[in-house]
Design goal:
Elements (H helix, E strand, L loop, with lengths): L2 H20 L26 H6 L1 H4 L3 E9 L6 E3 L2 H5 L6 E4 L3 H4 L8 E10 L12 E10 L2
Parallel strand pairs: 3-5
Antiparallel strand pairs: 1-2, 1-4, 2-3, 4-5
Length: about 150
């Protein structure tokens, strides 16, 4: 292959690569803020608490199923990443669980246990005193896991 052909093919290849990278969708506006309409929402329901806390906009107002350590008591209903975070009051590693006063006693058998929980995630509801990283509302399932 001649140097001219090699040079020509290299330039065409680079042009194709640059064209593809420039076609990528711009998700920001002039100020660099994220354009919420451009965010792709995910369809997965079973996720980790870490993923939920790290990407709340992806799951806001969506049904999620998470596993974690549950604490059920007055003004401190939450599901935590693990038992240690609950015991040490690391509330930002927890998700508020919205439970009515009437249901707190009914759910006491889940207290201080690892559970699978399913409900609607609300990133704007940060629970009592705004300490948590969102909330699970409209709970449809809570079950002990081993």
């Amino acid at each position: 292959m001649t140097n001219f052909k090699r040079s020509y093919l290299t330039k065409v290849g680079l042009l194709i690569i640059v064209s593809f990278t420039q076609c990528k969708e711009n998700t920001g506006n002039k100020e660099g803020n994220i354009n919420e309409q451009a965010i792709t929402y995910v369809d997965e329901k079973k996720i980790s608490i870490i993923k939920l806390i790290a990407n709340p906009t992806l799951y806001d107002k969506r049904t999620v199923q998470i596993k974690g350590f549950v604490n059920i008591e007055f003004e401190n209903n939450a599901i935590f990443l693990n038992k240690e975070d609950c015991e040490n009051g690391i509330d930002k590693n927890g998700i508020w669980i919205q439970i009515s006063k009437d249901n707190i006693n009914k759910l006491s058998n889940f207290n201080k246990k690892y559970v699978r929980l399913e409900g609607i995630f609300d990133m704007t509801n940060n629970g009592h005193d705004g300490n948590f990283s969102g909330a699970i509302t409209k709970i449809v399932k809570m079950e002990n896991i081993k």
